[in-house]
Amino acid sequence: MSDDRDGFVPLKVAVLTVSDTRTDETDRSGQALVERLTGAGHRLADKQIVIDDVYRIRAVVAGWIADPEVQVILTTGGTGFTGRDSTPEAVSVLLDKQIEGFGELFRHLSWQEIGSSTIQSRCLGGLANATVVFCLPGSTGACRTAWDGILAEQLDSRHKPCNFANLVIPERGQHV
């Protein structure tokens, strides 16, 4: 399971883009996440695009939560306040525990880039069935901010004093 980078354990990550308009060719946010996670040494388990519909989002995320081959789920899009933004509503009911500080830390980092507009981000993090789930805003910049400022460290099994990677790596024994 480890590779040659001083105990680094690559995680299997699924990426879901929530959008009524994006396609594989125009999904810059999903692609930015894929590039960052694979660049960090993690493995892409799956990547999908789904329209902003509570039940379609929930179906994909629930399927990945139930799949032992997926350790991390990253969603991008659907976290705002428009009528169709429904990712938090779709995902929150699937979580066993919410990561309360994730949204706060993301908005703190985002404040430095977009000011008070960060208040409109309803990003979300949580744990479900030994899977960590992060719901990010749909902008490519927001995905970069979340990855570079939070997720890169928290998905790295070597990060001290704690990280979410060690909660989803079965042999570490902290996932139960």
TrEMBL record:
Protein role: May be involved in the biosynthesis of molybdopterin.
Keywords: Molybdenum cofactor biosynthesis
Lineage: Bacteria, Pseudomonadati, Pseudomonadota, Gammaproteobacteria, Oceanospirillales
InterPro entries: MoaB, MoaB/Mog-like_dom_sf, MoaB/Mog_dom, MoaB_proteobac, MoCF_biosynth_CS
Pathway: Cofactor biosynthesis; molybdopterin biosynthesis
Underlying gene: moaB
Keyword Membrane: no
CDD domains, per database record: MogA_MoaB
Domain MoaB/Mog: 14-158
Family annotation (Pfam families): MoCF_biosynth
Species for this entry: Halomonas kalidii
Similarity comment text for this entry: Belongs to the MoaB/Mog family.
Name listed for the protein in its UniProt record: Molybdenum cofactor biosynthesis protein B
The organism's place on the tree of life at top rank: Bacteria
